[in-house]
Specification:
The protein is globular. The mean pLDDT is 95. Helix 1 packs antiparallel against helix 12, helix 3 (61-74) runs parallel beside helix 12 (276-287) and helix 4 packs across helix 11 (257-270). The strands form 2 sheets. The protein has a 7-stranded mixed sheet, sandwiched between helices. The protein has helices at 7-13, 39-46, 61-74, 85-96, 111-120, 137-141, 166-176, 188-191, 235-238, 249-252, 257-270, 276-287, 289-308, 325-332, 350-359, 389-394, 411-423, and strands at residues 78-82, 102-106, 127-131, 148-154, 180-183, 201-205, 219-223, 313-317, 341-346, 364-365, 375-377, 401-405. The protein has 17 helices and 12 strands. The longest helix is centred in the last third of the chain and has 20 residues, at 289-308. By secondary structure, the protein is an alpha/beta fold. It binds pyridoxal-5'-phosphate. Pyridoxal-5'-phosphate (PLP) binds next to helix 4 and helix 5. One of its GO terms (biological process) is cysteine biosynthetic process from serine. It holds the Pfam family Cys_Met_Meta_PP. This is O-acetylhomoserine aminocarboxypropyltransferase/cysteine synthase.
Length: 426
């Protein structure tokens, strides 16, 4: 599919072009296995001399249609889908890092990503220094070490909802020659394309807006090109991979060494691949992504404005409502939309917050974000319950914070639900 098409068209048609008589919709290829005629053919595939489907852990036609659609939407060079968003971020880290390496990451990360970096990777000898994303570049620069191999952040922090200062981080990535990895889940490719702003690798939890209907867990990693792997910091990319007949990813596959290694090596060994059923649902979900994000954003802005005027509410945070968010939204976002998630502070103690949550009717308590239904969550007592006070503060979470993921229901019904839950007296 021609990349010259705009996003709305790529969402619907990108990544799959049927030949005459083939299904118009990317079919679900529910097969682990593919047929070959001769041993030499299969040998070429197994040694990366040729590319094709051999076993669905490392590639499947339905999954491939999804990967290619996301790749086109992000403007990347190649993509690989994973079993979940967590698997996507873990794949990036294991594809890049060795014991003894170091990561510099925003402190305002999704709870699962924070845990991966803070609790789990240290057990494999990989350490992370976290920074406040609003800190000046010079302060963040002091965290870089000779063994730093990844700079990691999220386009929109979850649940801090801070928009990343891409120029500042891209500058640090260039200065220290460290690949810049961005989790673009909450923005989706419709709101932001991090490759245009200096990122080298983009990850997504497809379980959120790409699915859009809360049906499936999955993830995807996209390579943007433009990182020189051959300057000595990444021997896995420049030295022969003996497990693949001595291929050198950077030299042999200069177009997309990161994704070819991630698929051929990491999916082969760790196996966290996406299944075709979920890939199909994501591909269908992507068709309406721009329409849904506009509706999610419209509802979120309306609720943000409604809550701002309520005396029960002490503060409201929504990307684009205040500086520097508004300025960054204008600079980095493809659309004038802030996305579907907002946070606010409710006056009162934990019991009052719990009563408010219970009184909501149309809106339900759920850990999820980014599907058609409106959800609330109290991060401090749930997703981020393991964090201490200092970590909570650094992650941009307060005890009174309620996170709302706006669905695409009718705006007036959502506002009425919040109004009745705020107004009810014991
Ligand atoms: C949900 C989420 C993840 C993890 O994705 P799963 O599909 O749930 O594993 C990672 N990053 C962000 C920003 C998320 O919102």
């Amino acid at each position: 599919m021609d990349t010259a098409f705009s996003q709305g068209t790529l969402c619907v048609q990108g990544g799959y072009t049927p030949r005459v008589g083939e299904p118009r919709i990317p079919p679900i290829v529910q097969s682990t296995t593919y047929r070959y005629d001769d041993l030499e053919q299969l040998h070429r595939l197994m040694t990366l001399q040729e590319f094709g489907f051999k076993y669905s852990r490392t590639g499947n036609p339905t999954v491939s249609a999804f990967e290619q659609r996301v790749n086109l939407l992000e403007g990347g060079v190649a993509a690989v889908a994973t079993a979940s968003g967590q698997a996507a971020n873990a794949l990036v880290m294991t594809n890049l890092l060795h014991a003894g390496d170091h990561v510099v990451a925003a402190a305002t990360l999704y709870g699962g990503s924070f845990s991966l970096l803070h609790n789990t990777l240290p057990k494999f000898g990989i350490s992370t220094s976290f920074f406040n994303p609003e800190a000046p570049a010079e302060e963040i620069a002091r965290l870089f070490r000779p063994n730093t191999r990844v700079l990691f952040g999220e386009t929109i922090g979850n649940p801090g909802l801070n928009i990343l200062d891409f120029d500042k981080l891209a500058g640090l990535s260039r200065r220290f020659d460290v690949p810049f990895v961005v989790d673009n889940t909450l923005a989706s490719p419709v709101l932001c394309n991090p490759f245009r702003h200096g990122a080298h690798i983009v990850t997504h939890s497809a379980s959120k807006y790409m699915d859009g209907h809360g049906t499936s867990i999955g993830g995807v990693v996209v390579e943007g090109g433009g990182y020189a792997w051959d300057k000595g910091k990444f021997p896995d990319f420049t030295e022969p991979d003996e497990s693949y007949g001595g291929v050198r990813y950077a030299q042999d596959f200069p177009q997309s060494p990161f994704i070819i290694k991630a698929r051929a090596h990491m999916l082969r060994d760790f196996g966290a691949c996406l299944n075709p059923q979920n890939a199909f649902l994501f591909t269908v979900g992507l068709e309406t992504l721009p329409l849904r994000l506009e509706a999610h954003s419209r509802n979120a802005l309306a609720l943000a404005e409604f809550l701002s005027a309520r005396e029960e509410v002490s503060w409201v945070n929504y990307p684009g409502l205040s500086v520097p968010g508004r300025e960054r939204l204008g600079r980095y976002f493809n659309q004038p939309w802030g996305g579907g998630v907002l946070t606010f502070g409710l006056r009162g103690d934990f019991a009052a917050i719990n009563r408010f949550v219970k009184r909501l009717k149309l809106t339900t308590l759920a850990v999820h974000v980014g599907d058609a239904r409106t959800y609330v969550l109290h991060p401090a007592s749930t997703t981020h319950a393991q964090l201490d006070e200092a970590q909570l503060a650094l992650a941009g979470i307060s005890r009174d914070m309620i996170r709302v993921s706006l669905g695409i229901e009718t705006t007036a019904d959502i506002l009425a639900d919040f109004a009745q839950a705020l107004s009810a007296k014991e």
